[in-house]
Design a protein that fits this description.
heterodimer; A: 258 residues; 2-enoyl-CoA Hydratase, Chain A, domain 1; Lyase 2-enoyl-coa Hydratase, Chain  A, domain 2; 3-stranded mixed beta sheet; globular; B: alpha/beta; 2 domains; 6-stranded mixed beta sheet; 4-stranded mixed beta sheet; 10 helices; 10 strands; Enoyl-CoA hydratase (chain A); enoyl-CoA hydratase activity (chain A)
Chain lengths: 258, 276
């Protein structure tokens, strides 16, 4: 497995785990770290054994934001040429499910990382927010877009303008967080869920993700056409035959991902 | 986007170090943190500083792994007489005052997963009563009294009083106490369920210490879980609570103290809990 400086990566049976590992700065994201995260996910994406990916943080927080030192001296031209946010676009190309387990802080870039994942599980002590406004900037890695698509324009504006931190229960009520767990069992329960998802027919899981993602960008009509094609496509899979046969024969299906 | 100027280690609580406060005394003895409000000349009335220092000291006790129980008490005749009215100006915005000073204090008590005892040595009036209510246990000296004083200056109860009081004594009794504003004795407070134990003045210090010691030798992590889920029960329906109990028991079942408890039971000896 590749060498990473700021993350730790582990393949555990069918699960691909990425642990953010700069605990002494509450896992503040620097450019190299973001690059490592996306490379690790892409490598799991290509690994046939891996069916579900999980991101979580080591230490007291998930990720308390981006490394300010790194960008304090930047100017528009240097940022344009560096094009650092392009790496974030690669998240949208991942076809396998990515689950994020958040404890402690998920702020700024850390919150954007969490929002880039498909499912978000949080410890009851988790806190979410975009403090960028207080530094005279704004989210740059999808925060204004993903948050708005999730909770709507007015609520997104209110939150982004205030720069305030909200607790996990609020985030759950807003529909950002899927499930809340006591902090002690967050990882355990996330892994259990990830394993449950890994046992589902991978092609179905994959095409459902693709179709749901399209629902955010397409008109309803276009989305329905897209969905239909994916539905038809699954009938080319062995898992469809196995799944339907098992149902008729009243036995448990054995899915192979083919 | 955030906070970090440069990489640096997170500062740790200075364990066993001396912590200086102006309005309170703070001391850790035998796994118990003693927080003593120390403005006897004003009956331990809350000025801004004292509220901040109480919050800070509880946070410190919460983060100190040596601490397994916390006692809040007062020097002199009173536990606390509530808001220091000399600290209030004609144009004081009470909403801001509460948000800035009282609410963080009450939130800190509620979120600290260690047992917190209010050792009510004398009068607990107004926000002083609220502070006592927010603790997990109340011990009262025989000369202690409780007073919902707010009404006497035309104010409503605050600092969690509206939350805790009806939950502890029931709606009807809470209305009676908050609206009529009559002082109740330690004995009466015991009768209506506000107080765990009334202790005579002669034995006060000793018995409070014994009670605190007793809690400090119990399975601390588990007490913290009981506190957490007792709070959550107010916000949950039965089915949610059943699910939460399953998590809580899963967590408690992984503690060393659970293993010790089982071992002690099988070996027919007294358990020795570490708090983890």
């Amino acid at each position: 497995m590749a060498n990473y400086e700021y993350i730790r990566v582990e393949a555990k049976d069918q699960l691909g785990l990425v642990m953010l590992n700069r605990p002494n700065v509450l896992n503040a994201l620097n450019r190299q770290m973001v690059s490592e995260i996306i490379r690790a996910l892409e490598s799991f994406e290509q690994n046939e054994q891996i069916r579900v990916m999980v991101i979580y943080g080591n230490g007291r927080a998930f990720a308390a934001g981006a490394d300010i030192d790194e960008m304090a001296a930047d100017n528009p031209v240097s940022l344009e040429l560096l094009n650092q946010f392009a790496e974030w676009d690669r998240f949208t190309l991942l076809k396998k499910p990515v689950i994020c387990a958040v404890h402690g802080f998920a702020l700024g870039g850390g919150f954007e990382l969490a929002l880039a994942c498909d499912l978000l599980f949080a410890a009851e002590d988790a806190k979410f927010g975009f403090p960028e406004v207080n530094l005279g900037v704004m989210p740059g890695a999808g925060g204004t877009q993903r948050l708005t698509k999730l909770i709507g324009k007015t609520r997104a504006l209110e939150w982004l303008w205030s720069g305030e931190m909200r607790d996990a229960e609020d985030a759950c009520r807003e529909g950002i967080v899927n499930k809340l767990f006591p902090k002690e069992v967050l990882l355990d329960e996330t892994m259990k869920y990830a394993q449950m998802l890994a046992n589902k027919p991978p092609l179905s899981v994959r095409l459902i993700k693709e179709s749901v993602s399209k629902a955010l960008d397409y008109s309803l009509y276009e989305g329905m056409q897209f969905e239909r094609k994916n539905f038809y496509l699954l009938f080319a899979s062995e898992d469809q035959k196995e799944g339907m046969n098992a149902f008729m024969e009243k036995r448990k299906a054995n899915f192979k991902g083919q | 986007m955030h906070l970090w100027k440069k990489e640096r280690p997170i500062l740790r609580v200075n364990k066993g170090g001396v912590w200086m406060f102006d309005t309170i005394l703070y001391e850790v003895r035998d796994h118990v943190a003693w927080i003593t409000m120390n403005r006897p000349q004003s009956l331990n009335a809350f000025n801004s500083k004292m509220k901040e220092e109480i919050t800070k000291s509880i946070k410190q006790a919460a983060n100190d792994i040596e601490v397994r129980a916390i006692v809040i008490t007062g020097t002199g005749r009173a536990f606390s007489s509530g808001q220091d009215l000399q600290d209030v100006e004609a144009d004081t915005d009470y909403g801001e005052l509460i948000r800035k000073y009282y609410n963080p204090m009450i939130r800190q008590i509620a979120s600290t997963e260690k047992p917190i005892i209010a050792a009510v040595n004398g009068t607990a009036a107004g926000a002083g009563m609220s502070l006592a209510l927010a603790c997990d246990f109340r011990l009262a000296s025989s000369k202690a009294s409780f007073l919902e004083a707010f009404i006497h200056v035309g104010l409503v109860p605050d600092s969690g009083n509206f939350y805790y009081l009806p939950r502890m004594v029931g709606h009807a009794k809470a209305m009676e106490l908050a609206v009529l504003g009559e002082k109740i004795s330690a004995e009466t407070a015991k009768e209506i369920g506000l107080v765990t134990k009334v202790i005579s003045i002669e034995n006060w210090d000793e018995e409070v210490a014994i009670f605190a010691q007793r809690l400090a030798s119990m399975p601390t992590k588990t007490i913290g879980l009981i506190k957490r889920y007792m709070y959550q029960s107010w916000e949950s329906n039965l089915y949610e609570m059943l699910e939460k109990e399953a998590y809580a028991q899963k967590i408690a079942g992984q503690t060393l103290d659970h293993k010790e408890g089982i071992a002690a039971f099988l070996e027919k000896r007294k358990p020795h809990f570490q708090g983890e």
